[in-house]
Amino acid sequence: MSTRQVLQVFEQYQKARTTFVQTIAELATRPQNIEILQNAGVMALLRPLLLDVVPTVQQTAALALGRLANYNDDLAEAVVKGDILPQLVYSLAEQNRFYKKAAAFVLRAVAKHSPELAQAVVDCGALEALVICLEEFDPGVKESAAWALGYVARHNAELSQAVVDAGAVPLLVLCIQEPELDLKRIAASALSDICKHSPELAQTVVDAGAVSHLAQMILNDDAKLKRQVFSALSQIAKHSVDLAEMVVEAEIFPAVLSSLTNTDEYVKKNVAMLIREVAKHTPELSQLIVNAGGLAAVINYIGDSHGNILLPGVMMLGYVGAHSENLAMSVILSKGVVQLSIVLSEEKEDHIKAAAAWALGQIGRHTPEHAKAVAIANVLPKLLNCYLSTESSEDLSTKAKKALKNVLQRCIHLPALEPLLHSAPSNILKHVVSQFSKILPHDPKARKVFVTSGGLKKIQELKPEPGSALHEYVNTINNCYPEEIVRYYSPGYSEKLLDRIEQYEIPAVN
């Protein structure tokens, strides 16, 4: 056999390997092919090709493995059990930028499925190799490495700490300062995944100087970048007053509020989450948001949104309203109660209605004036319906009941209380009657309305336990009327009158 013929054999072999990995990589993009490839033992066939002498074969084999591992946790586990990860980690330090991107993709695809698989990535020494990749000149390599690190960190605090210990945070902060948008997005996302688990992890990100750089990007026009920036800032702010203050000190208000009208729903939701996480900590932080025009912006946002996207806005109103009488009144004057009432009526999901009920209870619990503002928005019958409905979740029923009690303990607005008198169950009725006992002694017009609406008749039917609080409230109300009026509306009074007719002896006529 001639030299030429021998070389042709090797050329055919190389061509066959190249064709094989390219075809597998293409087949792996279609879900219907995955099980067939798995049953054919594709993992064992791809593994040796990761060390192929031809760089294109290596890279394409890694790409195919990444696509397979990305599909489900069984295939990702097969990559781990096949001892493929150490090979990839070794190659991360040795190979060219194309291979590094493919190898980082495989590590990310494995890590994403579960904490156990992410731990396998950590155990094979991948974090140190990925962190080194963050220092590469090529932006695509940095992006792939940042993505893989974020997928490890997102699962829990221990894995996130491992990413921090590997030295990733300062380099990720440098990455968000790079000009490439894709790299900025992925690095911001990874920082968000790191700091979400604990105050200590968030402090590490803050100490690396991330907040000021993130804050500079809030007005960037790129929606995908804005999503990640607002997510990272909210994950920092949520943990403590100090961290929230650090975020606020980066002068994000009022600039962030303009993004509540962004066309991208995830941008809007993440902005609302950030505002909520800042507002929840202290009255001072809530007041800062109010002073910046945040209440009106959030209320408009709730009015323009539906479903889960409006949830952080609803909760923000509750947090602001809970802090103080003045802040609750700010919510009321900004028409926040009206908007929450609409949410309670129109939203389908119980957890959203439960959040609205909770927020209304926080706003209305301060003074009679606050309670009246909630009551005249026709909220009380809606809360009662949520509490009593057999279709309501336990959480919605509990929060509606608590909100009702919060408002009723302060409410002295007769028209709002009247419907509840005839429909509320006994555990709520006590609060309603107690409020009438405060109103009626001082308001002659209210006393007349209470009779003509059937209220006086209703409380005569209650039969409260002697000595109970409800018994005292009923007595207070009865003392507001002449004795014959009370008797007239008492149960059985008409029968007694009929008996008297039967027993009545007509006087003899002279």
TrEMBL record:
Compartment(s): Cell projection, Cilium, Flagellum; Cytoplasm, Cytoskeleton, Cilium axoneme
Gene3D superfamilies noted in UniProt: Leucine-rich Repeat Variant
Alphabetical list of SMART domains matching this protein: ARM (SM00185)
Keyword ATP-binding (UniProt): no
GO cellular component, one term: microtubule
GO molecular function: microtubule binding
UniProt keywords, alphabetically: Cell projection, Cilium, Cilium biogenesis/degradation, Cytoplasm, Cytoskeleton, Flagellum, Microtubule, Repeat
GO biological process: cell projection organization; cilium movement
Function: Important for structural integrity of the central apparatus in the sperm tail and for flagellar motility.
Subunit text: Interacts with SPAG16 and SPAG17.
Protein name: Sperm-associated antigen 6
Originating organism: Clytia hemisphaerica
